[in-house]
Fold this protein.
Amino acid sequence: MTHMTTHRPHRQSSLSPLRAGDGLLRQIIAGLLLFYLFLYVSSIPILVLDRVPAWGSPMGGLLNMLQGSIMALWLYANAGTRGAVAAGLTLALAWAVEQIGVTTGVPFGRYAYTGALGFGTVGAVPLPIPFAWLLLIPTAIGTARLLHRRYGARPWWLLAVAPLLVLIYDVLLEPFATEVMGYWQWIERGPLHGVPTANYVAWYATALALTLLTLALCGQRVTHPRVLPRLPLLLYGLNLLLVTLVALAYGYLLAALLGLATLAAGGWLIRAHIAALRDDAQRLMAGVSRALRRHESG
């Protein structure tokens, strides 16, 4: 006798990652990533040698928006609608905190944007600033989860380490953004690079809140991502490397030492993932090449 079972058709939840569109999303992310890498490699000698032309100042804003968009697509690819909501709320809440900060001096201290980032403003906040937060939160989560083999995916570890990674980046970013590029100016001064201590406390608190929001909405879909799982590590590492090189070139020794120490410690902890990153890059390039050949043949 043949045993027959009937299966109900599986109805995928709108909150689940989109499997059918994974290939297309990967290709879009890969294309944007290649464009970013081209701009990144081109910008390093210009920044380090202090050869930024007058028209090149908004390049930082473009890179923020490009990377923030990449991470929004990454969240959507891995967490579906929940990822899109997390990305949208990160943009909205980051804008709200910055708008309050730049108009009242709370919680960061008194500062003013200069317009050098370009791309206009929403209220008093340049458009690239919320995209910078959208870049940093998922990349910090994705980096933190790879730093410890046993605890990396646990919420308490991510809530402790991811905001710290965001704070480390800000410590290195401040002299670059204020004194080298002039993206904003501090009216209220402080002991570290002329930045008020309240700024660093507020950065950590904001990063903690946005990390908690992302984990609450996306859960295991970002702690165990299925699509491009090492992309956050790549983007966080490249950004940290860039601000570290600039700190070295301009003599900000404390920031440079912090950056070098973080890169060295992080590189040792994630050494097992470095070869995997190379394999990821090769697969992405192969996917883009196949897409281009199909486009040409069509």
